[in-house]
Structures are given as structure tokens and as C-alpha cells.
Design goal:
This protein has six helices and five strands, in the order αβββααααβαβ. It is of the alpha/beta class. It has two domains: 2-45 and 150-179, 2-Layer Sandwich (Nucleotidyltransferase, domain 5); 51-136, 2-Layer Sandwich (Nucleotidyltransferase, domain 5). It has a five-stranded mixed β-sheet, covered by helices on one side. A hairpin with a 4-residue loop joins strand 1 and strand 2 (29-36). The longest helix is centred in the C-terminal third of the chain and has 30 residues, at 119-148. The two termini are 14 Å apart.
């Protein structure tokens, strides 16, 4: 994961240290304060499933295929906003840790309540799920930036390719956001 974290430093405009890093993949969801090469402070991490793992499992529950991130994103494009509001786990308490297992359970229970699922049901659930994950990641990133005073955020890992996440971070954070290539 260190390679993902440091890849933006090789770009034309590398972020100045210190900066916040969000490492978000199928195996990791971590927020770090990067103070220099090899000098990292773990601020928060997933206490259960990583965000990418949650995307994969939610996609499987909905019969959308693998990898789950792109499958959820494609399906969510046709989803009806506001049909459901899924929880934003651990955003109502202090700290920077993440938890996505309850969101998976909420997704499963929602899907089971509608069986048999229509394509529109799948899209609506995918939309609500993606929105909840994006909001959760955004809230924790904003909190990390505020708590540390950093004004640059590096986002790396497979989930960083999610366009809704990028759009939200780029538009809503009062920080410069850098993405790993």
C-alpha cells in the first residue's frame, strides 16, 4: 500500500507534506497523516470490512458481478435518488475509524425485503449503497483534514477510481485532492 500512497509524489505537482492520505481498496480503508517518506501516522482504519470489499459483497448480493465497485457504479447510474437512505456508519461519533459491515447487512436486508428484485430495485439499492459509502469516506476525510490542519488529500487504491467519490471530494472539500495514477 505504501506504493499507492507515494505514487502521487512522482507527479508533476506532488502534494506538500504533511498531507492526509485515504487508502481505499478491497483490502484496506485507512486514513494516514503523511509527514514525510516513511513517516506516517495512522489516524483511522476500518474495524471490519474495507470499502472495496463492501462494494464487492454488495454487488454479489444484488447479482451485479465482479469487480463490485464498477458494477455498483454502473447500476447506480439508473438508480432513483431518495428511494432509500442507507446509514453512514460511524459518522455520528468522534474518531476516524470506518465500519462497512453494517452497511452490507442493511443492503442485504433491503434486497431481501423486495425479492424478487427488479432491475430498477437493483439500481436503486446500488445508488443508495454507493451514496452511503461515498458520504462516509467524504465525512471522514473532511474530519481528518480539519483535525490535522492539512490542506492536501491523497486518495489511492482501487476505490479511488469511483467517479462519485472523486466528484464529491473535489467539489466539497476545502483542500487540494490528488489521486494516484
Amino acid at each position: 500500500m505504501e506504493a499507492h500512497l507515494l505514487a502521487p509524489l512522482l507527479g508533476a505537482t506532488p502534494p506538500p507534506v504533511p498531507f492526509i492520505a485515504l487508502l481505499v481498496s478491497g483490502g484496506h480503508t485507512q486514513l494516514l497523516l503523511v509527514q514525510g517518506l516513511g513517516d506516517y501516522v495512522l489516524l483511522g482504519e476500518s474495524v471490519d470490512d474495507a470499502a472495496g470489499e463492501a462494494f464487492d459483497k454488495a454487488a454479489k448480493m444484488l447479482g451485479l458481478g465482479f469487480p463490485g465497485g464498477p458494477a455498483i457504479a454502473r447500476s447506480a447510474e439508473s438508480g432513483q435518488p431518495g428511494r432509500w437512505r442507507f446509514p453512514r456508519p460511524m459518522t455520528d461519533r468522534p474518531g476516524l475509524d470506518f465500519s462497512f459491515s453494517g452497511l452490507k447487512t442493511f443492503t442485504l436486508n433491503t434486497a431481501n425485503s423486495l425479492k424478487p428484485l427488479t432491475d430498477q430495485d437493483r439500481s436503486d439499492i446500488a445508488h443508495a449503497f454507493e451514496e452511503a459509502v461515498v458520504d462516509t469516506l467524504y465525512i471522514k476525510c473532511r474530519r481528518a483534514l480539519e483535525e490535522t490542519g492539512a490542506n492536501h488529500l491523497v486518495v489511492a487504491g482501487g476505490v479511488s477510481a469511483n467517479l462519485k467519490l472523486r466528484e464529491r471530494l473535489d467539489q466539497a472539500l476545502n483542500a487540494t485532492v490528488h489521486y494516484a495514477p
